[in-house]
Amino acid sequence: MNNLEFNILRLNKEKGITDINEIANILYKTTDEVDLSMEALRNEQFLDGELLTSAAENLLKSRKIENAIILAAGMSTRFVPLNYETPKGLLKVNDETLIERQIRQLHECGITEIGIVVGYMKERFEFLRDKYNVTLIETKDYAERNNHASVLAAKDYLKNTIITSSDLYFSRNIFQTYAYDSYYCTTFVPGKTAERGTETDSDDKIVSTFYGDKCYDIWVTLGYAFFSREFSKKIVNYIEKEFDFPETKNKFWADIQDEHLTDLYMYAKRCDDDVVYEFDSLEELRTYDKKYAENSGSLIMKKLCYMLGVEEKYIVGLESLKKIKASMFKFRCRGDIYVCDINPDGRDRVVYQGRVYYPCRDIKDEKIALYKMDKNIRINGGYQVNIEKILDDLYNYSAEFKKYHEEALPLCAAENVISPFANLPLSFGFQERYIMNNTYSFNMDDNFIGCEKLFPYYQELSDACERIFGAKYTDPRPFTGMHCIDMIVKCVCKPGDKMLILDKNAGGHASVKPVAERLGVNVSAAPYDYEKQDLNYEETNRIIEEQGIKFILLAPSDLIKPLEVTKINTDNCVLLYDCSQVMGLIAAGLCDNPLLTMKNIIMFGGTHKTFPGPASGLIMTNEKYLHDLMETQINPTLLRHSQMHQKICLLFALIEFEQYGVEYMSHMVHCSNYLGKKLKEKGFEIGEINGHISQTHEIFMYTSKEMMDTIYDNAYKCRVTLNKKHKPLFHDYGIRLGTQELARYNWNDDALDKIADIVAELVNKDINVHKVREMVEALPEKKVQFTFSDDVVEKFRKLMHD
């Protein structure tokens, strides 16, 4: 009886395989070799035709594999950073935990006596005791020694035993129920390899092993092994004898076998090259299970992605730096090289292979320190710059930005898109030109010759705001909504003035308080009624009167109903109302316009949220004394260049809004209520007020902290833009969605149904990122609606570019 003959009997018994061609294919033998062996088995009374005889059954029974030992003690340091959080054997590949897949495959072969050697994060394997009735065997030497220590730890369990590693993945079950003698799985590797090569005799007995130049187009050991009782006794004996030798410390058990191969011989079990997978690093795993390029499940990777503003697939070249420090690893991201330390010790630099890595000082995290390689090396007193590479990088960044926003699902309540028409002035050359003063204070004295050609735009802008908002005085010079606040407070407030604001916990903009306090204003929070989601106006008016409040600055950022600011008594105070989130609704007449009915008010805001203009600022008032305080102070005193391309872009957006704004805003509010209703039907807790899900573009979703974090993390991976919130207004935790950009594309209810399905997927902890991205890609085209025709756009474009 030889190895080939035994395996013919084994395949017959285990799988019912009797076809000569199939046997030859599995065992990597010729059909002639198999045919001769089958004839010999018949002659020796082991086969009766194709049937196993009782002699064959008895032989197989005597060679039955008795148990399995799974080695799971190692730290898997090459698998940074996942190994810091999860033992490698507990990772999921194709949605199945590695070690559990092997246990299941062993059970399928009738091998139910299983021991697992544990060490690193040993407690993480405890659940396997109850689930599979396994035995956990502890080794104390996992951090200092290689896997020979794990084999030695299991010596009392070794008999006719399969030895496998917890981090192996077998695409199909290649475990056996019976074995002729000790064997090791082997796979053919074309070309050069760093793996352990083998040479075998005609019966597949391994006669030599080697590394290096001879390992070319070779069968290598890869996968699990089987120890016969005799082999088990011998290898334990060798390990015990050599355990204290200094050179033994870093040896695999197979290295010790190599040194005594005549005594510790094995046969080669030949396996197809698509069966055995051993993932030595995260990047190797990414090539097999694509989800790991997008969602490894690692909290460390998630933090790095948030710190660097990238998706996981851009973090590559991962390498352990355990020789410097066990908690350090290196990686590349977008052309830069970083060192990460998950147990920071405050060091001011890291030196590795002659390069210096300095702290990323703008990245603060108590549990992670990030160092970046200084690539600006001075040569002969100057920097060596590869302009072609920099241009390529800029091109790639731009292409990626464009692709991202073409593919992303826009549910962020703070962003909007501008139309091709409104976008025209951004490329007309206005940005290089200066003009001092605003519409009302313009004069050519001490101004720039040629600025008079810009002045008509200012006049048109003021006229448009008077028609749309009823504003007598308009100032478009600030750059953003927050810049408006900064300019207004500097112009109309004095240090020591008392001011009420909308607190951030009640949905107010978080930057208002520090900006006002920095300018010397005494700030306190206005009383707020969380049930009504509005100010307590009776109490607010009492405080204004009793405490001599001079200003009340309201900058709502989170709101599903507009504030009823007209209830504020402004007889003796000034209302500074940031209407950024509802500017479009006010312009369309879908919510109250306090400029028309209130005195002592400055209304202002950013022009890129519900109002679909550029990221700019707009200040409006009907009080001349307030206008006078700002008109000649903002420019030229507080700013010089007012970025005219933004202002003219804003003018184009205002003209467009006059024509299409009411229809656009009406659709936006419909989208909020329809999408909110669909999410509510799917079991989400959706905020409501006065019988409406929303009177604005925003939808409030109330969640637990865990659910909020899961949705946000999945949204980041799936390219869904939204905001997470932690404040009382959201019942502690929640998600804020916005529909202003969806409405700009005029997406219908069918599209909103699909969006509700997508949001529902974001709750899944084991989300299928690829599936969700396919759902997003199936949404309608992103083509801006509620705007002028292409003919109008082309008319202007030809004027400026021909």
Description:
The protein has 802 residues and is α/β, with parallel strands linked by helices. It has four domains: 60 residues, Winged helix-like DNA-binding domain superfamily/Winged helix DNA-binding domain (Arc Repressor Mutant, subunit A); 208 residues, Spore Coat Polysaccharide Biosynthesis Protein SpsA, Chain A (Alpha-Beta Complex), CATH 3.90.550.10; 81 residues, no CATH class; 230 residues, Type I PLP-dependent aspartate aminotransferase-like (Major domain) (Aspartate Aminotransferase, domain 2, 3-Layer(aba) Sandwich). The chain contains 26 helices and 38 strands. The strands form eleven sheets. A seven-stranded mixed beta sheet has the order 7-6-3-8-13-10-14.
Rg, Cα atoms, Å: 36 Å
How many helical stretches?
26
CATH superfamily of the largest domain: Type I PLP-dependent aspartate aminotransferase-like (Major domain)
Shape: elongated
Assign the CATH topology of the largest domain.
Aspartate Aminotransferase, domain 2
- Low-pLDDT stretches are none
Q: Name the average pLDDT.
A: 93
According to DSSP, the number of beta strands is 38
Structural class: alpha/beta
Question: What is the C-level CATH assignment of the largest domain?
Answer: Alpha Beta
CATH-defined architecture of the largest domain: 3-Layer(aba) Sandwich
Largest sheet: 7 strands, mixed
For the largest sheet, list the strands in their spatial order. 7-6-3-8-13-10-14
* Amount of beta strand: 15-25%
Helix-residue proportion: 25-40%
Q: Number of domains in the coordinates? A: 4
